[in-house]
Automatic annotation (TrEMBL):
It comes from the Bacteria. It comes from Rhizobium mongolense. This is KANL3/Tex30 alpha/beta hydrolase-like domain-containing protein. It holds the Pfam family Abhydrolase_11. Residues 14-208 form the KANL3/Tex30 alpha/beta hydrolase-like domain. Transmembrane segments: none annotated.
Amino acid sequence: MGEKFLIDGPDDARVTILLAHGAGAPMDSASMTATAKALAVTGFRVARFEFGYMAARRTAEGRKPPPRAEMLNPEYKAAVAELDAKTQLIIGGKSMGGRVASMVAEDLHSTAKIIGLLCLGYPFHPPGKPEQLRTKHLSGLAAPTLICQGTRDEFGTREEVPGYGLSKAIELLWLEDGDHDLKPRKSLSGFSAADHLRTMAEAVATWAGRLER
């Protein structure tokens, strides 16, 4: 795969969403593809990209472990510059990708390069380690942010997250019985993965509509 970006959605969209992948799955994983398609259906232009360590897995260099998330901040900023969106831009990503975006969002928002931040399954803490919080930078975040989280996400549940002291700029969309990929157990919840992706995309469209300048 030689393309730097995978693009979905209309070229004449008013808002582009740039998404980075999670720690273990590439930009064209089933989850990332379904997410991008759902957002495209609601009118966004969606661009997906890969960090260097993940792109290297497609070559003879083989499998590289992900570096510490903050080490990827320059790569995320470089992707924003390379994409050079001619529309208003929201940045974000799945799990670690959203975490990296959240660490560069303040700088990009204060310089008017983005209008908001979208995190899909934010990794508030490693599974089984609720004391290892990854939330310090989120308490003072001023960039408008939407976090879409499954209620049983092992990286941060609906019972845990309200106690984290998050910035008032952060809005949360809870998806009933969703896991870290926002997928519910249909037999228990009555919802399907497609239902939750549609709900997510519609919520993003409503939220983004309030941000457009």
